[in-house]
Amino acid sequence: MQGLNSAGLKVYAETIAMPYVLDTAGILVLIALVLDVMWSTMGLGGGLLTKRFSNRLYRILLRIGRKRKSRLFLSWIAIIILVSVFAVWVGMLWLGWSLIFLAGERAIVQSQSLSEAGFWDRVYFTGSTIFTLGVGDFSPRGALYQFLTAFASLMGLFMITFGVTYLVPVVQAATMKRRMAFAIASIGTTGRGILLTTWNGKDFRILSEHLLSLLPNLSQLAQQHLTYPWLHYFHVRRRSESLGLGIAAMDEALTVMRFGLKEECGVPPGIYIPARRAVTQFLYMMKEAAFIEPVDKDPPIPSLDPLRLCGLPAVSKAEFESHFPELSERRRLLAALVRNERWTWELLEDEEHPVAPEKPLD
Q1: 265 contacts: CB under 8 Å, gap ≥ 6
Q2: Apex CA 121: angle with CA 117 and CA 125, to 5°?
Q3: Among 171, 56, 234, 130, CA closest to 48
Q4: DSSP run (H or E) holding 140
Q5: CB-based contact 357:344 (threshold 8 Å)
Q6: Which burial class, exposed, middle or buried, applies to 290 when counting CB atoms under 10 A from its CB (0-12, 13-18, 19+)?
Q7: Distance from C-alpha of 143 to C-alpha of 255, rounded to nearest angstrom
Q8: Can you give the three-state secondary structure of 193-213, one letter per residue?
Q9: Any bridge partners for residue 110, and if so which?
Q10: Which tens digit of pLDDT belongs to each residue from 64-89?
């Protein structure tokens, strides 16, 4: 090495060192891709690269959404992120194998003339191999690169299949979120509205039946948010489609019913307790996944006066408000859930406007 001049070092780098660098870089890119795709598609909460890329892109898109002041753009954020993640996976797959095929001096040749393929020819050959199994105008030379070409085709088939099939349950889970939000909104968009709708003059039997149908889906959605972090990026245009507003309204209804009304008119404990636990589990799973953090200030305490005017047996204001210190963290998490979906708590206090304005929360 000491006897080599600058020209000799250049030749050494081009003929000996550079192929090893390209091979190593290509292998590392493919290993990172496989780990990231497998970690994401196997329901383990998303790979490290995917998480970081998605979070940064999400923050950028949110800034754009605030400037545009339209929920229509917010509703497209999740789609943009999912497509971008898939594009990154495809790009890493293409890049990794391109580096490997660029390393060999005569790894790829033209099929007719057997002349060495150039830079862009090899990149083209890589893409056609992993996406279409090759078109025949270029071919690998030697047993090693023939084997690598076959392996690249197999890997491309599996990676793209894994990526596409992973998108299906994510979209299905997002649809379940909207369906459950609609189910809650069908009986009321605020806690007071839910109670007034389901009160039959003596008890909340209708609400009990409704809760029984909602609890399994709520528990399933809590698990899906951990399995598919991309659900966190889905925003909706209409108030009735927001699961955050729906859960907050349902929990406020349970709070008012439990502490603001006399016991004889409440939902049976066998239904009330599982419902409260399901909401608690959902909130703490969202917190554990770092999707939400409690807001700094407790939401306003709901008024019992409209319920009294409608004939519901409410307790005194002092007795009702005495329970709220112990509910502080829970309600601040509910407010964070609402804010996370770019809505405001004020919507839970107004039953007169079924559709929220087309303006995201800053």
Answers
A1: 199, 202, 203, 204, 257, 312, 313
A2: 105
A3: 56
A4: strand 138-140
A5: no
A6: exposed
A7: 71
A8: HHHHHHCCCCCCHHHHHHHHH
A9: 138
A10: 877 777 788 888 888 898 889 888 99
- Strand segments (E) across 159-268: none
Q: Give yes or no for a contact between 318 and 304, defined as CB atoms under 8 angstroms apart.
A: no
pLDDT digits (tens, 9 = 90+) for 306-341: 888 888 888 888 999 999 999 999 999 999 999 988
**Of 347, 187, 352, nearest to 360 (Cα)?**
347
Q: Is 109 helix (H, G, I), strand (E, B) or coil?
A: strand
Is the CB of residue 47 less than 8 Å from the CB of residue 35? yes
| Cα–Cα distance list, 11 to 4, 6, 22, 40 (Å) | 10, 9, 16, 43
Going by C-alpha positions, the residue among 273, 269, 282, 331 that lies closest to residue 302 is 331
Do 273 and 267 meet the contact criterion of CB atoms below 8 Å apart? no
CA distance between the termini of the chain: 62
Identify whether the C-beta of residue 297 lies closer than 8 Å to the C-beta of residue 339.
no
Whole-angstrom distance, CA of residue 225 vs CA of residue 170: 10
Closest CA to 218 of 245, 254, 181: 181
Q: Which residue has the tokens 């400037």?
A: 67
pTM for this model (two decimals):
0.78
Running DSSP on this structure, what letter comes out for residue 299? P
State how far the alpha carbon of 267 is from the alpha carbons of 231, 257, 261, 275, in Å: 31, 8, 11, 10
Radius of gyration of the chain (CA): 29
pLDDT tens digits for range 218-245: 888 887 887 777 788 888 888 888 999 9
Cα 195 → chain centroid:
32
* Alpha carbon 48 to chain centroid, angstroms: 14
Per the prediction, the chain carries an average pLDDT of 81
3-state helix, strand, coil in the chain (%, to 5): 70, 0, 25
Please tell me the total number of residues recorded for the chain in this structure: 362
Domain residue limits, the chain:
6-164, 168-349
